[in-house]
Design a protein that fits this description.
heterodimer; A: 525 residues; alpha/beta; seven-stranded antiparallel beta sheet; globular; B: mainly alpha; two-stranded antiparallel sheet
Chain lengths: 525, 187
């Protein structure tokens, strides 16, 4: 079934798709956003770890392979708002050293742009969605920019308790930059520090898409269609332009939505799956895949966490799920001896009892009466510091279609992922430093949160680059081969950095959406 | 608006407890209440439920009374996209019932092999603890089924959920629950 042609069809109603929808709808374009999952409202965001699992996928179309299979569901979105409906809203930036690793160190990849190209968009996003923090304090590590529109969030003992330990090893902590309201902002209330960010913030204090860009897009006339599963991007006979997307609606009936421009904002792994499944005679390896790089260079962050148990009450039920304090003091690519890659440090988050991040999992070895005793102590005295580490792009980490198909006849895909020795070395170095920090606090007991090496923040798969031979898109997310087909989200990152990615996702999406708007007549006209 | 007023306002938008079938009608109950009322299990067999109760209680004291078997049974009896199980975020592929059947079967088979034909629920407390510790460390010889440490992780998570993840669980630990939107029936 064909629908009325629109200007833009956007696949995915998460962070990046929402930005494109807002910018283009405000520019007067007719926009349709297709979202695979339900149409969540703020009132669906129940403060419960049980109920918070509803807004994540239940068995995705991805098989997980490799030495470090990518356990993605915890971080993935399912429904309107996407993963940004339950993200922690930590808003660190990438730094200038992230953009030229190949030039400066002879390894990994260069981005086709530099920090100065993205920085104005960080500042714009901060004004758009509301960021709290101390930009001046951050400028010990990065070029100056605009101040954040709100002062830093409150801190609690669970964060402040780490200052002494960090000072002992020469790490400076500053207020974490977060996409949350420390004060009322644009009619949205201030945060009340109840620590339920990770299951979705219904108050509007946290900058999720429903209360920011997607809300703006809807006000400007964008239509969001939930339960719309996109299977292919369709092209003209010459293969020179995207013309439509094929999707299956809530009744599982096939639909075609024609559009002058298509934006794939589904997810780092789902975008390549759609592009590979869209192969035609003109694009036998999949759309935008003449280079063979669609699905390649999948990247993740990994975290080295350290727990500290205090006798005193550290107020760990207060705060936000993300972090109270942050540091870039180990962000240099060679900061940790014997390892390579950036590390980004965060300290002090509100703790809940259950779920993956719950404090019952702080001692996974305990069960029975020993766990009961631990829970009573941890309920008041436990806090955590963590270091995100950077994985370098490796072409072997990839998304590929497999033979099995989903209910719509679309091939499933596998994500093959293994960390290399650089990543393992950095992970270990950060554990060692975490313990040093913890031992220098006043904690009674300290230990590393070691387990299987975690995969966090899936990125890559449709990386940007300077030319069609080394990348899938240009710096705006525009595919090299089809000028009216864009890819949005962390999939276009050329390297991963160590910062939580959403702020950069929003900034790059804003940059890409503005470019599409400005060049509309040549790109999509 | 004052914080407390905002919480109270949002609480009115709360949705959903778990739906159990009692006397042919669907009623909303906590798993603890479902257990107390003897609600008939939909998917788990009596043996599987007994094994799950015993495992849950060994992992997290209080899990049996908190209704771990009724919780899991209800959750694996509904469509996967509605499920609230930690299995969902631990990348278990639906239908989740398959995982639980395989895991509980593996536990009982190994228990029978190690303990003269006795299922896990029939073991004494000390043997149950030793078994669970072996499963945790992947040290049970002849284990056949989903990886022992993963079974430990997932069932421990379910037990933590029903004991500590509820509003009652927070109250027992003396932690303010602080909901923006409270789950109904303290769930």
């Amino acid at each position: 079934m064909a629908n009325e042609k629109v200007d833009v069809v956007i696949v995915g109603a998460g962070a990046s798709g929402s930005v494109f929808a807002a910018v283009l709808a405000k520019a007067g374009k007719k926009v349709v956003v297709l979202e695979q999952g339900p149409d969540w409202q703020l009132t669906d965001l129940i403060s419960s770890d049980f109920w918070g699992r509803r807004i994540k996928p239940a068995g995705g179309p991805f098989l997980l392979e490799g030495k470090n299979p990518f356990g993605y569901v915890y971080q993935a979105g399912w429904g309107v708002g996407g993963a940004a409906l339950h993200y922690f809203a930590n808003f660190p930036r990438l730094l200038p050293n992230d953009f030229k690793i190949r030039s400066e160190h002879g390894r990994a990849l260069d981005w086709p742009i530099s920090y100065s190209d993205v920085a104005p968009y960080y500042d714009k996003v901060a004004q758009d969605v509301g960021v709290s923090g101390d930009a001046k304090a951050e400028e010990i590590w990065r070029p100056a920019g605009d101040p954040y529109p709100m002062p830093p969030m409150k801190t609690f003992r669970g964060g402040e308790a780490w200052r002494k330990g960090c000072e002992a090893v020469g790490i400076r902590l500053v207020p974490a930059a977060v996409g949350m309201n420390s004060t009322e902002y644009k009619g949205r209330p201030a945060c009340i520090y109840d620590g339920w960010c990770h299951v979705g913030c219904p108050t509007g204090a946290l900058a999720n898409p429903l209360v920011t860009y997607l809300g703006d897009a809807k006000k400007a006339g964008a239509e969001v269609r939930p339960h719309a599963t996109v299977t292919r991007v369709l092209t003209n006979p010459q293969g020179s332009k995207a013309t439509a997307v094929e999707y299956y609606d809530a009744r599982k009936e096939r639909q075609v939505q024609e559009a002058s421009a298509v934006v794939l904002a589904a997810w780092s792994a789902q975008n390549p799956r759609i592009m590979l499944n869209s192969a035609t005679d003109r694009h036998p390896k999949g759309l935008g895949n003449a280079s063979g790089l669609v699905g390649k260079y999948m990247m993740a962050h990994f975290s080295s966490g350290t727990w500290a148990l205090f006798d005193e009450d550290v107020q760990n039920h207060l705060g936000t799920t993300g972090a109270q304090l942050m540091s870039y003091d180990r962000y240099g690519k060679t900061s940790q001896k014997g390892a390579f890659g950036s590390s980004f440090i965060v300290a002090g988050s509100a703790l809940k009892t259950s779920d993956l991040g719950g404090f019952a999992n702080a001692r996974l070895d305990l069960f029975g009466p020993e766990l009961t005793a631990f829970m009573k102590r941890a309920a008041r005295g436990l806090t955590r510091i963590g270091a995100f580490g950077e994985e370098l792009p490796n072409i072997e980490n990839r998304v590929e279609l497999v033979g099995d198909k989903d209910e719509f006849g679309m091939p499933l895909a596998k994500i093959v992922h293994s960390f290399d020795q650089d990543a393992v070395a950095l992970w270990n170095a950060n554990f060692e430093e975490g313990l040093k920090i913890a031992k220098a606090t006043d904690a009674k007991e300290v230990w590393s949160a070691r387990g299987n090496m975690p995969t966090i923040h899936l990125m890559g798969g449709t990386i940007m680059g300077s030319e069609a031979g080394n990348s899938v898109t240009n710096s705006y997310g525009q595919t090299h081969e089809l000028p009216n087909l864009y890819v949005a989200g962390p999939g276009i990152f050329a390297t991963a950095g160590a910062s939580n990615p959403t702020y950069t996702i929003l900034a790059l999406s804003l940059r890409g959406a503005e470019q599409l708007t400005k060049s509309w007549s040549t790109v999509a006209g | 608006m004052h914080d407390i007023e905002r919480r109270a306002l949002l609480k009115g938008a709360a949705a959903g407890a778990l739906a159990f079938t009692v006397g042919g009608a669907e009623v909303l109950l906590t798993p603890r209440a479902a257990r107390a009322q003897g609600v008939v299990l939909r998917t788990l067999s009596a043996t599987q439920a007994a094994t799950l109760d015993a495992l849950g209680e060994t992992l997290v004291p209080g899990a049996r009374q908190a209704g771990i078997s009724h919780f899991v049974d209800q959750q694996i009896s509904i469509p996967a996209e509605e499920a609230l199980l930690e299995a969902r975020i631990l990348n278990v592929r639906p239908p989740y019932a398959n995982f639980y059947r395989a895991a509980l079967g593996a536990v009982d088979r190994s228990s029978q092999a190690l303990h003269g034909g006795r299922e896990f629920a029939q073991l004494g407390e000390a043997d149950q603890r030793t078994f669970v510790d072996g499963m945790r460390q992947n040290k049970i010889e002849g284990w056949q089924g989903p990886a022992g440490p993963f079974v430990y992780l997932l069932l421990r998570s379910d037990a933590v959920d029903v004991v500590y993840g509820t509003m009652d669980g927070y109250a027992a630990l003396g932690i303010p629950y602080q909901p923006h939107i409270a789950p109904t029936r303290r769930w």
